[in-house]
Amino acid sequence: MFIPLKDYNPTRRTAVVTILLILLNFLLFIYQSYLSDEYLRNPLSASDLRPLKWPSSLEYFVLKDGLIPQEILGLRHAEIPVGTDRWGNTVIFHRQVSPLLSLLLSLFMHGSWLHLLGNMLFLWIFGNNVEDRLGRFKFALFYLLCGIGSSLVHVAFNLDSLTPVIGASGAVSGVMGAYLLLFPNARLRTLVFIFVLFTFMDIPAAVFLVIWFVFQFFYAGGGTGIAWLAHVGGFLLGMVLLKILQERKEPPLAALPQ
């Protein structure tokens, strides 16, 4: 297991967009997990209309605003069975958020502190340098396109799924794909776990990112509840979008004959 801690790759300017994205993800997670009482005002209801309490505020927002693949396919709201009440009635959650809006909202939602911290660590390590190279506006566009595109890859392989998809992983994967092309020789300070032992190593970014990418394929068929193919799609899309958005250097003018 490899966990990057930092890179030895300075930037020319402050990564404003990367910092704002990280703050937005943290603020939204804290609001949805601890500060909102919206889930209390919108209880679950069984078929006999008896109100039921949500297990948590975060679970409410995941079902309310997360990406549902089946909705994207039909562009219509889904009715999600979430269990049964003590009387044996099926509990249905009726979605109201626009399917297309959920494509965007889901990119800024996370299911746990571990999920959030992992994504934001990777975004900070790799995002600041990619933003530095693309510029702020292009990087913001790049990030959103990678996130939406990676989500659509997941949808394509799970057309009938009613399981919500959330997280910045697809967008961050796109950032990592761009970093691989831009800075393959940059050194990463990495925490390496070997069974119960661990050590610190400085390894080339290309080695770390290629190993990470290969493991996404390895895990994709594992059925762990993680959208691994969204990671793969985001990574590849990031490489393609970098080529499109990166400023091309103009060739020097040929000397004019005298």
Keywords:
globular, 3-stranded antiparallel β-sheet, 53% helix, alpha+beta, Rhomboid-like fold, 258 residues, 4-stranded antiparallel β-sheet, 7 strands
Architecture overview:
- By secondary structure, the protein is of the alpha+beta class.
- It has one domain: Rhomboid-like (Rhomboid-like fold), CATH 1.20.1540.10.
- Helices cover 53% and strands 15% of the residues.
- The chain contains ten helices and seven strands.
- The chain has helices spanning 16-35, 38-41, 57-65, 69-74, 99-105, 113-134, 136-157, 169-182, 205-220, 228-245; strands spanning 2-7, 44-46, 51-52, 79-84, 90-94, 187-194, 197-204.
- A four-stranded antiparallel β-sheet has the order 3-2-5-4, with no helix packed on it.
- β6 (187-194) and β7 (197-204) form a beta hairpin.
- α1 (16-35) runs antiparallel to α6, α6 (113-134) crosses α7 (136-157) and α7 runs antiparallel to α10 (228-245).
- The N and C termini lie far apart (63 Å).
- 34% of the residues are buried.
- The model is unreliable at 253-258 (pLDDT under 50).
Topology:
Layout: E1 2-7, H1 16-35, H2 38-41, E2 44-46, E3 51-52, H3 57-65, H4 69-74, E4 79-84, E5 90-94, H5 99-105, H6 113-134, H7 136-157, H8 169-182, E6 187-194, E7 197-204, H9 205-220, H10 228-245
Antiparallel strand pairs: 1-6, 2-3, 2-5, 4-5, 6-7
Helix pairs in contact: 1-6, 6-7, 6-8, 7-8, 7-10, 8-9, 8-10, 9-10
